[in-house]
Each structure stands twice: as C-alpha cells, then as structure tokens.
Amino acid sequence: MLLLKLLLFVLFIIFLLCTSEKVENFVAGRESMNFTINLLGKNYGMNQFGLNKSTDNYNDREISARSKYKVNSRKEMLEIYKENVMDFTEPEKESVTDAVRYLFTKYKGKIPLIRTWNIIKMNDDIDWGFPYTLGNNIVLPKRVISENPAELAKTLFHEQLHIIQRNEKGIFNDFYVKEWKFQEYSLPDDPWINKYLVHNPDSDNFYLYKLTPELLILPLPTTFNKHHKFDEHVLFLTKDLKILSKDDKPHVEPMRNVIQYNQRFYNADSLYHPNEIFATVLTEMVFNDLSISQGDQKAFDDIFKQLNRYF
C-alpha cells in the first residue's frame, strides 16, 4: 500500500511538471498551455530590425525626429535602432509574463489574443517612447514595461491587435471600407506629405474619410511642428481627390480640430489610421467599458466571427 501511494505521488509530481509554465532556453521564452512568450534578447532583437528594414521609407525629417541623436541617413538610423535594443531584466520578464497571463485568465475566448508573443525591449529615447509592432514582434520601450500590470496588459493587448491586423489585412480592409466608410488611397507625390509624414510601423496603407459629399480628409501622423514632435493632422481633399489649398498651401488642420471625425470615433486617441482607431476603441471597450453604438457593436461582433481562430 505504501509503495502504491509513493508511486501515485511521483506520478502526480510528474503531471504538475508537465503542465505547469516553464522557462525555455531560447531567448527566455515562457510557455503555458495557452500561450508562449519569447522575450527577445538584444542580439535577436537587433536582427529583427535588420530583417524588417523598418527605416527604408523614412524621410529626412522623420529620421531626425525619431531619436535624440544626430542622424544623417537611413543606414545610420538603422544602426541606432540596433544599438538601442536592450536585454530584459528578470523583474521585467516576470512583469511581461504576468501581464500576458492576466489577459488569458480574464479574456481568453472573449476577444482576439495571439498565442505567440515575441517582445523586444527598446530604449525610451527612440520613436518618442511609443510601443509598436515590427513584423510579428511587439516593441516595448523600457518605461512601458515598468508600468503597473494592468496598464502593461492594456498596452500589450492594443499592440497585439496590430499583429492580427497585419496578418489579416483583407478582413480589416473590408471592415474599414464597408463598416466605417473609409476609402483606400494611394499617397500622391506631394511635397507637404513627403516632408511631414511619419510612417506608421503598424500599417503600410492609407485611407480617406468622407466628411461631407464634397469634402474628404486624409488622416496622417506627422512631425509638423518645429520641434519634430509626433503629431496628428488631416489634409483636406475635394470629392475628385484634389488637395485643397489655403493661402497657397495645402489645407491642413490638427486632427482634434475636426470635431465631426473625432466624435464619430468616440474622441479616442490616435485617430490617424483605421488600424489605430480599431485597436484604441476595442482596448477602451475592454479595459475602460467604453460604450459604442449598436451599429459599431454589430460590426465588431461580425469581425470577431472572422477572427475566431485567435480566441
């Protein structure tokens, strides 16, 4: 009898070891039955920036704006990215793991969640200290990792939606055009756009929004002010897609001045692209109980059905 009890105890311990979360040797990856977290070390993270060629489209002004360093070329900017990738500390590893575990504990089966989380740590001095995605990787500035678990979980949820958007581009494009009435748009070779545009790493396409039957706006992330700080503006166009002029210059307004557009999307932050609108509004719905219209709720329910493999 004692031998049988001992055998059962050993089997129980083996069961626990096989089902509990474990730490991999590969880039400090953490696995559970629901998800895998790969906290990418400096060398691996540097390699990801090289592979994704994130600086290829940056304009001269943008290169200067994205870091505190004096940069003269895209090649130099790429090297600065690589130099500013950082290794995770042990407390940071635990913090990220706790935040992802929180998402799966509270929201699994209710909202889209990726299963593999590849995360790169970046110095706060790069890209205005914003989190963003690079391919299937989430780039987190150091300051964000230090936030409380609830805020970090909120940031991770928002950013992983950009990875889903990148991998399901057709589904989201249909959603933006059919449900939110955006219009796909190819940027013209316009001097104002070429000078002030900031390329969004979480999207590579552009959309117009119709304010009135006669007037459209092009939402854009910009470095319009003299200090090269990140900002949001809209460029006004006619219904036949000609850029409007004002005082012999393109008619541009700060995005917050366009009240109708802001109200349509619940006065959310980051309205410069439908990808950002979707991620911001859904994050506010989940974490801050944002109430949306019945039409938008139905639209969200419909797109969730198409994304059910992420639940």
What is the global morphology?
Answer: globular
The helical percent reads: 40-55%
How widely separated are the two ends?
46 Å
Q: How many DSSP helices?
A: 12
Task: Report the order of strands and helices.
Answer: HEEEHHHEHEEEHHHEHEEEEEEHHH
Mean pLDDT, rounded to whole units?
88
Number of strands: 14
Low-confidence stretches: 8-30
Question: What does this protein structure show overall?
Answer:
The structure is a single chain. This protein folds into two domains: 12-167, no CATH class; 170-310, no CATH class. The longest helix has 19 residues, at 149-167. It is of the alpha+beta class. It is globular and about 55 Å long. It is built from twelve helices and 14 strands. Strands 1, 2, 3, 4, 5, 6 and 7 form a seven-stranded mixed sheet that branches. A five-stranded antiparallel sheet has the order 8-9-10-11-14. Strands 12-13 form a two-stranded antiparallel ribbon.
Brief digest:
With 311 residues, this protein is an alpha+beta fold.
Secondary-structure blueprint:
Blueprint: H1 2-19, E1 22-23, E2 30-31, E3 36-40, H2 42-52, H3 60-65, H4 74-83, E4 85-86, H5 90-107, E5 116-122, E6 132-134, E7 137-141, H6 142-145, H7 149-167, H8 169-178, E8 182-185, H9 191-196, E9 206-212, E10 215-222, E11 231-238, E12 245-246, E13 249-250, E14 252-254, H10 259-264, H11 274-288, H12 294-306
Parallel strand pairs: 3-5, 5-7
Antiparallel strand pairs: 1-2, 2-3, 4-5, 6-7, 8-9, 9-10, 10-11, 11-14, 12-13
Helix pairs in contact: 2-4, 5-7, 7-11
